[in-house]
């Protein structure tokens, strides 16, 4: 499956169904202090009210779907 055909269908569409031992480190727990904003993020404005709603939702329910991060320098990650 190409990445292009998987876009818009959720993160599950981008990941292979047949995860065997070779991809064990695709999913991992990461200390939130090691995650930083991506400097390439094209959005520069975030509605404070919507951000507050998101914050409250995460506080109440947790993070429902996995976050996609990329390794930056050292033991740090970009969201």
Assign a percent range to the helix content. Answer: 10-25%
Shape: globular
Helix/strand/pairing class, anyone?
alpha+beta
Rg (C-alpha, Å): 15 Å
Termini separation: 24 Å
How many strands, which pairing sense, and closed or not: the largest β-sheet?
3 strands, mixed
Mean pLDDT: 80
Describe this structure in words.
The chain has 79 residues and is of the alpha+beta class. It has a domain at 26-79. The protein has two helices and three strands. β2 (70-71) and β3 form a beta hairpin. The model has no long low-confidence stretch (mean pLDDT 80).
Topology:
Blueprint: H1 3-6, E1 35-36, H2 48-61, E2 70-71, E3 77-78
Parallel strand pairs: 1-3
Antiparallel strand pairs: 2-3
Short description:
The protein is an alpha+beta fold and 79 residues long. It has helices spanning 3-6, 48-61, and strands spanning 35-36, 70-71, 77-78. The protein is built from two helices and three strands, in the order αβαββ.
């Amino acid at each position: 499956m190409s990445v292009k055909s998987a876009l818009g269908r959720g993160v599950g569409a981008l990941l292979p169904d047949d995860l065997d031992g070779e991809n064990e480190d695709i999913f991992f727990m990461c200390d939130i202090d090691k995650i930083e904003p991506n400097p390439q993020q094209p959005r520069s404005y975030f509605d404070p009210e919507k951000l507050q709603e998101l914050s409250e939702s995460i506080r109440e329910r947790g993070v429902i779907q996995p976050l996609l991060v990329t390794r930056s320098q050292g033991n740090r990650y970009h969201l």
